[in-house]
Predict the structure.
Amino acid sequence: MRVRGFAWYRCVPGVGAAVLAACGGGGGGYSAPTMSPPPTPMPTVTFTAPAQATSVNFGRSLQLTWTSTNATACTATTSSTMGGTFTGTQPTSGTVTVVPTATGTVTYMLSCTGAGGSGSATTSTVTVSPSILSTLSVAGITTVGSAVDPVEMGGNPYGLAIAPVTAGPITAGDLIVCNFNDGATNTQGLGTTIVGLHPTAGATPYRIAQSADLQGCNALAILPDDSISAAAYMANANPLVTAAGVVNTPFSADTFAHPWGEAFVAAKGANPAALYVSNADGSIDV
């Protein structure tokens, strides 16, 4: 506006140099305020396993899994030495297996640092209970029964497995036993029988199979249909016995080195079922 011959100006940032001069700017120009950079984010740490309070029996391992963000280095600590080894430098994300060394409770901690500072996380409490074996009382042991074959009278069970289903004379949960000794001379390695027992006190054995192909039977594995894979040490064979007691030799083309152990793994996902047979010379067939 203009009053009695005087010129008045409203000074506004961003106007031309002539007006700024009139406003006392001296033609120096306008300087914008300096913007500060955003703060560097602080690290975060998260345990994804164990995700909640958990309990394991002494003798078992425990898996710890964690992730972090904005971190460049991490250091682990354990609340108690009985928790196992989880100390010192760790990757910013990872998985480790720890084995507690005693019973009790423990937590695991991870502290991570980065350009923005530090962050930390602690697992839920892990309770390490006594081992399963230590909870078994001698006073609670019950004798189920004899494993002697009711016909041939061979005994000395070297193999034991649990039937998964009911088939033939076998009932789900029955104890399936492989005898290493014969009945006539009670000589080790001459046994030829497989028997079953119901898992109740005072049970009597029932015959499943007898065959010269089973001579020296010392281990067995039960397949999902109750078929029995038997390691026959003296026969140097690995017969497959049906639940009805029929003895087959589907692996006769293989050259064994006196089979001594059996393990069956069921199919899972893309992995097919597998039968492993260990031999006295230390080799394993599959």
In short: The helical segments are 17-22. Confidence is low (pLDDT under 50) at residues 1-9, 16-25.
